[in-house]
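All the exercises in this workshop are built on plain-text protein records. There is nothing in a record beyond a sequence line and a structure line. A learned vocabulary of local backbone shapes supplies the integers on the structure line. The question running through the whole workshop is how a given chain folds. Here is such a record, shown just as it appears in the course material:

***
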Amino acid sequence: MNNESLKSSVWVAQLIFIQRSIRHSIRNTDAMIMAIALPILLMLLFTYVFGGAIDPSGNYVTYVVPGTILLCAGFGSSSVAVDVAQDMTNGIIDRFRTMSVRSLDVINGHVVASVLRNLLATTLVIGVALLIGFRTEASFLQWLGAIGIITLFIFTFTWLFAAIGMMASGPSAAGGYGFVLLFLPYLSSAFVPTNTMPGWLRGIADHQPITPITETIRSLLNDSPLHTNGWWSLGWCGGLLLVAFVLSAWSFQRKSGRR
């Protein structure tokens, strides 16, 4: 087989695994609906129940939308941990090893399908936010920057959940371990400024990845200065991606018997 045919077969295999993951998502409608509905419900809760106390001016929806977008992405990505753990424990990886495809492509399929699902969910969240009063002064380039950061965040956290799924002993354990990451937005500036928190908690909130990523999206959408948040966002995402890739490769080789 020449190089062009080999490359073509690799891309075909990737598309097949992506389609497989998307079909699984469509069949699991309950999980997909919850991944979209829960962040929207939380945004409505914070805006209409707590928003008046947090920001009496009525502009709290503008503040809370960036954090809600990241929360939505986190919930949407978390299912990858369970899906990957299922594939790693039900013997399908061993079956793929007997075929002329790369077994790791099945993990890539989960990741790409999850990113596509999350971008769709993010679009729906932004649409609901606009309906309830969210307004932005962002230019076209700033919108592109915000979408780029959101996509990078989704890609990063999807790979983190994939790594958790590969390291976990089974789907139930993967779901439990992955749930820890979903608490990060609540310990950040996603819903309230960090300067309103106790000193010890503010130290945690200011030095975890969600805060600079939230502030970067918020600054881009509100046409305000980025300061160093943009660089911190890229650094956090790059570092976490590297960790996820290393853990995924190590765990995949260990569980698939490739040493």
DSSP finds ten helices and no strands in the chain. The chain has a mean pLDDT of 82. The two ends are 26 Å apart (CA to CA).
